[in-house]
Specification:
heterodimer; A: mainly beta; Immunoglobulin-like; 14-stranded mixed β-sheet; 3 helices; 14 strands; 7% helix; B: alpha+beta; 4-stranded mixed β-sheet; two-stranded antiparallel sheet; 11 helices; 16 strands; 23% helix; globular
Amino acid sequence: MLASFVRGAPVEWLLDPGADPWNKARGEKLVLAATPLALQPTALVRNAWASRSYGAVGAVQVSALHNGEVLAFRLQWSDPSENRDPEDNSAFPDAAAVAFPVTPGAPLVTMGAPGAPINAWYWRADSDTQGRQVVAEGIGSSRTPDLSLVHTHGIWKGGDWSVVIARALRVEGAEPFVQLTPGAVTEYAVAVWEGSNGERGGIKSFSVGWRALELAPLA
Amino acid sequence: MSKRQLAMVFDLNKCLGCQTCTIACKRLWTREEGMDYMWWATVNTMPGRGTPRDWEQSGGGFRDGEAQPGKLPSRKDFGEAWQFNHDEVFFGGKGESAHLKVVGEEPDWGPNWDEDQGAGEYPNAYYFYLPRICNHCTHPACLEACPRKAIVKREEDGIVLIDEDRCRGYRFCMEACPYKKIYFNHVKKVSQKCIFCFPRVEQGVAPACARQCPGRVRFVGYLDDQNGPIWKLVEKWKVAIPLHPEFGTEPNVYYVPPIAPPRFDADGNVDETKPRIPDEYLVSLFGPKVLDSLQILKAEMEKTRAGQKSELLDTLIAYEWKTMFGGLDRDPATIEWKKG
């Protein structure tokens, strides 16, 4: 997928899933599948979901734009229920994330591996504009070292989510955050959690493998 | 397993259901936002549906060592924090005409809804109070369920704590806990539960529920402290036993089971042949060891009736209040507490 370069586009535009530039972005449709049950990190999760179906969101339409400083993804998928604030204990919010291998070849299905981290940019509907950066080096190792650098916003309308997740191409810090360069090719992956189905943590649907992502040069 | 384990013993023969423990905990720990419906310490009437409603039938724990799926009790099952017309009654000038009542939807359940109902028929009706906190289990289902490793069991005292910085509100712990002693904070979006008053314990002060108990019900201490009451009641005398041991989590709260008064027969005479609280019911709560425990208690009571001394009964009576806390008997008023 090509992340088109939109010269001078303010971040506010990029964060508006309905803004003009998004209509011109060439995207791709990703088929999602449930994460493997055997790889869930705890026995309770494996046993509780052994006879329950998850990975309810089976496909997501993705496009990406950058303005030379910020890369934004727009994820769109069909979801009959808008799950934002969980009002009761058994209710969970919808969520989505875009992931990158920080070390080339970091495995996606195991959320990275020791010494081969992955970096995810995460949106959750109950804290719509509070994006997170997650770092993981293997199943069950994910942590959230950053709450300020990822910008997110989701709009649910007529049975569809349209969610934008954005971050500066390059960020400071000692954490294994992905650093991106216009003109370069990297890889990305997507995960979606269907709140109404109790999906959270490792219980989600994901793009199974990494996908190529080319950041258009600054031309 | 932790190096040492703090534990509590609740003597059900002394609990009068006054809820002082409940309020002591509430005042100290669950007054912040999102905590209004939380009662880390509860006291329910048994037989009864408990808090949260029907928690004993809600799954979780382990069977044959295997983690069992469990339910997520609803806020209503725990009991919502009702809003009252305080302004109208106390400040609206209608003190003599308006009555205190719940504002909004009429509640049909609460954290102590079936108080004092119990079971059985007059004149052989029966009930007892069951105080509960987090059991700070040796094999904590919550800790093992959490995919984020947000729950820790402290090496030095076995207290089980949720790290709110790591918790992402997935509530797998709540599903896994068979005692349903974990609450979800809908404002902070994290799970929260009894912390065994660890900031007090670290200063040598017993947990608030224990120290405030007017009935001297709650013993505190390390399981391996042979000078403390816990070791005596659990290990030496074997009268204090865990609730629902079949849940497989090895709780560290132990109960001295209740001895009910005798039954009356059809003619109104005392009938000592059958206990008023059916053995089967106590076995369903505490497992078959409850019968041994009751036998030991009765034998020791006989001894004292015969004029002999009983270390067990002396311990349970707790003549010296401070001996109940296994050395955690420092007066909290002598400490300058700072909010961390």
